Every structure is written in C-alpha cells, then in structure tokens.
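Task card 7
Instruction: Convert sequence to structure tokens.
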Amino acid sequence: MKTTSKDEPAVAFAGAVKSFGAIRAVDGLDLEIRAGETVALLGRNGAGKSTALSLLLGLNDPDAGSVRLFGHSPAQAVAAGRVGAMLQEGRQVPRVTVRELVGFVACTYPAPMPVAQALGLAGIAELAGRRVDKLSGGQMQRVRFAVALAGAPSLVVLDEPTAALDVEARHAFWASMRGYARRGHTVLFSTHYLEEADAHADRILVIDHGRIIADGTGEQLRRAAGGSLVCFDLAGRAADGLTELPGVLAVDVRGDRARLRTDDSDATVVALAALGAIRDLEVAPASLDDAFLALTSAPAERLETV
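Output:
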C-alpha cells in the first residue's frame, strides 16, 4: 500500500449510492473526514447510518460513486491495518481469555499494537485473564473496543459503542476513546445519545434519507436549527399567529404552554410583550435534541415540531 499524502482525507465519499431493492439507503452521499478528527454520525433509524458505515468498511460496495479511505479502497485500507471497527453485534468466543482474543486479532494485522497497550487503552487490563464468555455486557463492549484497537489503526469506526452501558461504564469508555483520539487518530462514531456527540465530537454529521443534511459543531447545528426556545403560558389565549412573529421558525403548543423555536429571541420576546403574552416567560438555548428533531423532520412537519 502506497504512503498516504498528509493532505489526503481519512474518509471520502463521492456521490456514493447504495440501494436494496426499491429502497435507496444511501443517496448520493458526499462526505470528507480529515485525518485526526473525531466525528459523530447521527440519524434516525433507517436514515442510512448503518449502510454508510458498511460502505466505509467495505462490507458492501456502492452501486454508484466511490468510497476512499486514506486515498485507497476500503478493502485495501482494511487489509493494510489502517482501519479498526467496533460493531454493535458480535458473537462471543467461548473458552478464550480476553488477552488471547485480542492477541489473536492483533496477529492478523501487519503492524499491531502490543496487546497490553490495547487492553490498557480500553481500560480492561484487569480483565486480561478472564474468559470472554463470562463477561458482562458492559465489559464485553470494552473488549470490542480493545479488539478495534488491536491493529493500531489510523481510523477507528464505532457503531453505537455505548449501547446498553450504564452511566459509569459510558464515562469510562469515552475516557478511553479520547485517549486514543489524542494520539492523532481519526475516530468516527454513530450514537443515539446526542449528548455524547455534543461532548466528544469535534464535528457532528446528521444523515437523513441517505444524505448528509447538517455538518458542524453542536453549537453550529443548534444555531442552524434555531438558536433559542422562547416558552410562555398562553393563559387562555389562542395560538393563532405565533408562527408570524419575528424570528419564529417553529411552534409547539403543549396544553396551555407554547414553545417557540426562534433565531432571534430578542425580537420574538419584544413582539410577545407587545401582545401582552409574557406570562411565565422563559428563554433558553435550543438543545441538540431540538436541533436534531428540527433538522430531520419532514418539511410539512417543521412548523409543528421543536
């Protein structure tokens, strides 16, 4: 495998398409991830996340377009040990210890990481002598992370890495992941925990209907979807006309409480004051959850969903 240029992106999708029958799971996906970035991939169930990851790992080939890792095909990059993956599912291997499993996987790579180092980075050195089939679900997730690191990959792909972990285990996992990322490695992870994306990613990608619909930091996504929420009690007033107020992008009425998503909270509050509609007024930044829902809702839904 030829040496990669320092300017070559770690991941590059160019017009990638993948269909399953009549369903186009990935639809002309264009994406670049720079070497050394930690990137979160968000999307609703069925949005195309898993299919995009399968193309990236070479588990499926695109019907059209291309996918390149460090300037090479996924198969070449994987064979060269440039890529490690932690997938959601995997069968436990009976009657082998954690050390034996990670060591076996490491031996399949051209320039593996020392087993003790992989176990240490994954935070499971104390489990080295334990049988894999005797571990808890949370411990097994950490073993999968160690397996993903075994080849000393330049790119680590993590598919829902903290699913089913308790809070303490999730914190420990992300501490391990950050330790690996600080070494200059590229990390791409998918997650349903939006706060994890906000806390641990340099950049967040939102995929919907097989395309990237938002790309930026958590703060940039919140601003793009409407930077603030203005909430107040209707106190018997009709909600008619709220969508016409300055800055308002979406309205959600729950019982007697109105929630307005706005990109100019000052102008919205002034307009509400002029209407005398400031009972129990609250102004707060939009959360990443609010931004995600706004970005991934269908156009006809967006005036009703915050």
